[in-house]
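Re-run requested by the PI after the first attempt was lost when the workstation crashed. Everything re-entered from the original request form. Ligand of interest: zinc ion.
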Amino acid sequence: MFRLQCVKCRKVSQDSYYDKQLDKVICSECGESIDDAPETTKRALIGIGKVINTQPKTSYMIECKACGKSGEPVLKDNELYCQSCGAKLAVNEFFKRTAIEHLNLEAKKSTRKYG
Ligand SMILES: [Zn+2]
Ligand SMILES: [Zn+2]
Protein backbone atom coordinates (compact mmCIF):
# COMPACT_ATOMS: atom_id res chain seq x y z
CA MET A 1 0.00 0.00 0.00
CA PHE A 2 1.40 3.38 -1.00
CA ARG A 3 0.41 6.32 1.07
CA LEU A 4 1.07 9.53 -0.74
CA GLN A 5 0.03 12.97 0.36
CA CYS A 6 -1.78 14.60 -2.52
CA VAL A 7 -0.91 18.28 -2.81
CA LYS A 8 -4.12 19.04 -4.70
CA CYS A 9 -6.83 17.66 -2.43
CA ARG A 10 -4.56 17.36 0.65
CA LYS A 11 -5.85 13.90 1.35
CA VAL A 12 -3.69 10.85 1.72
CA SER A 13 -4.04 8.78 -1.41
CA GLN A 14 -3.94 5.16 -0.29
CA ASP A 15 -4.89 3.58 -3.55
CA SER A 16 -3.10 5.61 -6.16
CA TYR A 17 -2.29 4.27 -9.57
CA TYR A 18 0.11 4.97 -12.38
CA ASP A 19 -1.05 6.50 -15.63
CA LYS A 20 1.09 5.18 -18.43
CA GLN A 21 -0.05 7.80 -20.91
CA LEU A 22 0.72 10.77 -18.66
CA ASP A 23 3.67 9.09 -16.92
CA LYS A 24 2.24 10.27 -13.62
CA VAL A 25 0.97 8.82 -10.39
CA ILE A 26 -2.73 9.61 -9.99
CA CYS A 27 -4.41 10.36 -6.65
CA SER A 28 -7.24 7.95 -5.90
CA GLU A 29 -9.09 10.61 -3.91
CA CYS A 30 -9.41 13.41 -6.46
CA GLY A 31 -8.05 11.90 -9.67
CA GLU A 32 -5.39 14.53 -10.09
CA SER A 33 -1.78 13.70 -10.79
CA ILE A 34 0.67 13.66 -7.92
CA ASP A 35 3.55 15.46 -9.56
CA ASP A 36 6.19 14.87 -6.96
CA ALA A 37 5.64 11.12 -6.62
CA PRO A 38 9.03 9.46 -6.54
CA GLU A 39 10.24 7.24 -9.37
CA THR A 40 10.35 4.28 -6.98
CA THR A 41 6.61 4.64 -6.34
CA LYS A 42 5.89 4.63 -10.07
CA ARG A 43 7.95 1.50 -10.52
CA ALA A 44 6.31 -0.17 -7.55
CA LEU A 45 2.82 0.60 -8.89
CA ILE A 46 3.79 -0.81 -12.27
CA GLY A 47 5.17 -3.85 -10.47
CA ILE A 48 1.85 -4.60 -8.77
CA GLY A 49 -0.13 -3.85 -11.92
CA LYS A 50 -1.83 -0.67 -10.74
CA VAL A 51 -1.50 0.89 -14.14
CA ILE A 52 -4.02 2.58 -16.36
CA ASN A 53 -3.58 3.79 -19.87
CA THR A 54 -5.71 6.84 -20.48
CA GLN A 55 -7.38 6.77 -23.82
CA PRO A 56 -8.91 10.24 -23.81
CA LYS A 57 -10.91 10.10 -27.01
CA THR A 58 -12.36 6.62 -27.13
CA SER A 59 -12.59 4.37 -24.14
CA TYR A 60 -11.55 3.25 -20.72
CA MET A 61 -9.04 0.52 -21.23
CA ILE A 62 -8.31 -1.67 -18.26
CA GLU A 63 -5.69 -4.34 -18.24
CA CYS A 64 -7.11 -7.58 -16.85
CA LYS A 65 -4.83 -9.33 -14.41
CA ALA A 66 -6.43 -12.69 -15.13
CA CYS A 67 -5.87 -12.84 -18.89
CA GLY A 68 -3.47 -9.94 -19.45
CA LYS A 69 -5.58 -8.35 -22.16
CA SER A 70 -6.53 -4.69 -22.19
CA GLY A 71 -10.00 -3.68 -23.11
CA GLU A 72 -13.04 -1.65 -22.28
CA PRO A 73 -14.67 -3.18 -19.22
CA VAL A 74 -18.15 -4.65 -19.23
CA LEU A 75 -20.55 -3.16 -16.70
CA LYS A 76 -22.71 -5.61 -14.78
CA ASP A 77 -24.47 -4.94 -11.44
CA ASN A 78 -22.28 -1.89 -10.85
CA GLU A 79 -19.11 -3.92 -11.12
CA LEU A 80 -16.58 -3.98 -13.91
CA TYR A 81 -15.70 -7.19 -15.68
CA CYS A 82 -13.13 -8.11 -18.31
CA GLN A 83 -14.68 -8.36 -21.75
CA SER A 84 -12.23 -11.06 -22.81
CA CYS A 85 -12.39 -13.59 -19.98
CA GLY A 86 -15.22 -12.26 -17.77
CA ALA A 87 -13.10 -11.96 -14.65
CA LYS A 88 -14.06 -9.25 -12.17
CA LEU A 89 -11.70 -6.31 -12.49
CA ALA A 90 -10.04 -5.01 -9.36
CA VAL A 91 -10.01 -1.25 -9.76
CA ASN A 92 -10.10 1.55 -7.24
CA GLU A 93 -13.33 3.40 -6.44
CA PHE A 94 -12.37 6.51 -8.32
CA PHE A 95 -11.60 4.66 -11.51
CA LYS A 96 -14.68 2.51 -11.15
CA ARG A 97 -16.93 5.53 -10.78
CA THR A 98 -15.42 7.26 -13.80
CA ALA A 99 -15.56 4.15 -15.92
CA ILE A 100 -19.18 3.43 -14.93
CA GLU A 101 -20.15 7.01 -15.74
CA HIS A 102 -18.43 6.70 -19.06
CA LEU A 103 -20.06 3.37 -19.83
CA ASN A 104 -23.51 4.69 -18.88
CA LEU A 105 -22.91 7.64 -21.14
CA GLU A 106 -21.93 5.34 -23.98
CA ALA A 107 -25.02 3.24 -23.39
CA LYS A 108 -27.26 6.29 -23.54
CA LYS A 109 -25.58 7.46 -26.69
CA SER A 110 -26.05 4.17 -28.45
CA THR A 111 -29.75 3.87 -27.54
CA ARG A 112 -30.34 7.39 -28.79
CA LYS A 113 -28.59 6.83 -32.04
CA TYR A 114 -31.64 5.71 -34.01
CA GLY A 115 -34.26 7.58 -32.05
ZN1 LIG B 1 -5.89 14.21 -4.50
ZN1 LIG C 1 -9.52 -11.00 -18.67
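Saved to the shared folder this time. The mean pLDDT is 83.
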